[in-house]
Amino acid sequence: MTEHTYREAGVDIDLEARAVRALVANLTYQRTGAFPMLGGVGHFAGLIDCGPYALALAVDGVGTKMLVADALCDWRTVGIDCIAMNVNDLYVMNIEPVAFVDYIATDALSIEKMEQLGQGLNKGARLANMNIVGGETATLRGLVNGLDLAGTCLGIQRKEKIVTGENIAPGDLIVGVPSSGIHSNGLTLARRVVEEYASYDTHLPGGAKTFGEELLTPTRIYHEVLGVTEACTVHGMCHVTGGGLLNFRRLADYGFSITDPLEPPAIFRWLQEAGNISDVEMYRTFNMGMGYAFVVPPGSVGAVQSAVPGARVVGEVTEEPGVWLRGVDIQ
Asked: What is the pTM of this model?
């Protein structure tokens, strides 16, 4: 039986990392005068110094989840995904999202699609308590095939409240928070497996949803984060997006040992079995049921669990660098 991988499906995350490094290596210019950049490039969001405050910018899109929406002719929830993928990248630095602009590129405009995209964007903005202040729609026939949805988010926070991961230390505990499902990452591989071994309109074995409905379940917006950071000490946070557990490498040079991962929802178990996908490949590609994580001193665990339903300790920070899954280095 063929062993499916993200690379074989068309996405090479190692190549992507090298390509991004090649791009960033050439981004050497820094503005002179007021409002300089804070920190470097490579965290979940970029920061701008505004006196006692920092402004933050994040940008992301829905990716090939749009192809599932097209297959089901259902675009009502992908706007939530677009908002979520951006605001979650601000939450990991304890930054409050305040404004958003969307970008829609398409080969042909559809009133129905635009109405449904607007519904999802509006719901996502409400969940994140954020204004959508503008956007851009471009008809690019010949360049774009279908429709792509992306956006940019602006956030703000007092500089002393920003969480960068610099206080992470061995002995800190990793508290995982459940995802709502596959979110908006790994869809290239997920679609390959579903299209080869099932179909979007058939039901997941033992489940109430079809495969298409499972894949379109919107990304969870982790708005509880801002309350958690007010209630207890948080050393770092991770949005588990593309690259799975490898996202922890953005936080610190220590090791992140996941010894007791959250139970993956049924969609992940089916994808792994049907696609003959290894544990390492699954956890390097998907969130596997943990869409977000707090890195906290042991005394903060109770406060996190009180504020975020389903949160629990899944591992700890170690001296030895790397990202470890039950003792196996997945890098």
From this structure: 0.94
